[in-house]
Amino acid sequence: MADVYDVIVIGAGPTGENVAQRAVRGGLTAAIIESELAGGECSYWACMPSKALLRPVAAVSEANHVKGTAGARLEVPGVFDRRDEFAHHWKDDKQVEWLKNAGVDFFRGAGRISGERAVKVADTELRARQAVVVAVGTRAVVPSALAGAKPWTSREATSAHEVPDSLAIIGGGVVGCEMAAAWSALGARVTLLPRGRLLDRLPRFAGDLVAKGLADSGVDVRIGVGVTGATRNGSVTLTLDDGTTLEAAEILAATGRAPRTDDIGLESVGLTPGSWLEVDDTMRVTAVEGGWLYASGDVNHLALLTHMGKYQGRICGDAIAARAKGNEPEVRDRSSKTCIPQVIFTLPEVSAVGLTKEQAEAAGHTVRVVEYEIGDVAGAALFADGYTGHAQMIVDEDTKTILGMTLAGPGVGEMIHAATIAVAGQVPLDSLWHAVPSYPTMSELWLRLLETYGL
């Protein structure tokens, strides 16, 4: 006899937890399966430990850019201790207890779909009355040219307890740039090797400011240099495509992510193992008949960010609960393609939401780009002596609403949610003009952007 639940979730990261919690809140029974630690990648190897490493770096940088506070420095053992506390010392007792208190049954092991509405974990067979949800997330991709050298991935980069003498980072995306900032500040000699420009999915100015910020902090940034091979003999020797070699104590492969769907039984329902799962706006997998299989979070490739996975998880759990009662869900995904906020905790910070100019034009919008130097705002000048930062606002000229915003500069991570509200709410510019920013704060940037636009 199988254990029967209304909803079975494979993957107990933040996305899966939100699915299960919302399903239970909707009156359903739920089980969740996790092969590693409840809480997932974000809690132990990504968001929380990486930001715990990076916050002291930013705090010291901010202190040393205000006259009268010079001399702030990192205390490396203390940084690691604080990071370990935020990662709960890689133990999930509290997370498992939270699931129990939320009314969700927890199964530890590798969950595999074994047929319609059926999942096996170890020797236990589970069956779902309503839905099975795949929320297994992604794993780091290690290029074959690096595999033999046993590189760090994001997991080792966020959990290591010793600072290497030198670190070569391959990749100029979020992980590469953030870990370059962290480990350089902690004392490693860091070389960053991006094939193209840094943060190339964002407007060019953002990557350019980060490249300068990292270089000013001591990172050797070699834009446009690729790696063709790597060998380890104690240290690692990298062969570069400019004909040179580079030796480093450790290397970090920050070259992308792949879905963790290669061994979860997708073939049993006609899907390809290792593939991304395409979904509709309620997270239901479109290629499986019967409407019982859902995929939420990174695994559907819509927005590989924890907060977006949690958002999708809430939509998914609510949709399953509504359909269990014979209703179509009222709330559907409106943000995973057009209103994705993110913060990149580099030196300086970068934050963005919505569409870039190129994305907006490709979608058929008539756009106007509005730009402003953040350092010209009084609040920014008070925030840091010699503040350097830039803002770009993308306006839909037909609707007079904001389609996207990108900010680069110290402290801009806490500013992006205002833009997220404006983009998601499609707030007209002439209404935003009446949202008066407090003086003297960095948020006065909003007034300056609107004045630059012509209001």
Describe the SSE topology.
Layout: E1 3-10, H1 14-25, E2 30-34, H2 40-45, H3 47-63, H4 76-86, H5 93-101, E3 104-108, E4 111-115, E5 118-121, E6 124-134, E7 138-140, H6 144-147, H7 154-159, E8 166-170, H8 174-185, E9 189-193, H9 204-216, E10 220-221, E11 227-233, E12 235-240, E13 245-248, E14 250-253, E15 257-259, E16 293-295, H10 306-324, E17 342-344, E18 350-354, H11 357-362, E19 367-373, H12 378-383, E20 390-396, E21 401-408, H13 416-424, H14 429-432, H15 445-453
Spans of at least 5 consecutive residues whose pLDDT stays below 50 are none
Overall pLDDT level: 97
Tally of individual helices: 15
Structural class: alpha/beta
Notable traits:
five-stranded antiparallel β-sheet; 15 helices; 455 residues; alpha/beta; single chain
Polypeptide structure, described:
This protein has helices at 14-25, 40-45, 47-63, 76-86, 93-101, 144-147, 154-159, 174-185, 204-216, 306-324, 357-362, 378-383, 416-424, 429-432, 445-453, and strands spanning 3-10, 30-34, 104-108, 111-115, 118-121, 124-134, 138-140, 166-170, 189-193, 220-221, 227-233, 235-240, 245-248, 250-253, 257-259, 293-295, 342-344, 350-354, 367-373, 390-396, 401-408. The protein is α/β, with parallel strands linked by helices. The strands form 5 sheets. Strands 1, 2, 3, 4, 5, 6 and 16 form a 7-stranded mixed sheet that branches. It has a 5-stranded antiparallel sheet with strand order 17-18-21-20-19, with helices on both faces. Helix 9 (204-216) links the parallel strand 9 and strand 10 (220-221). The relative contact order is 0.13.
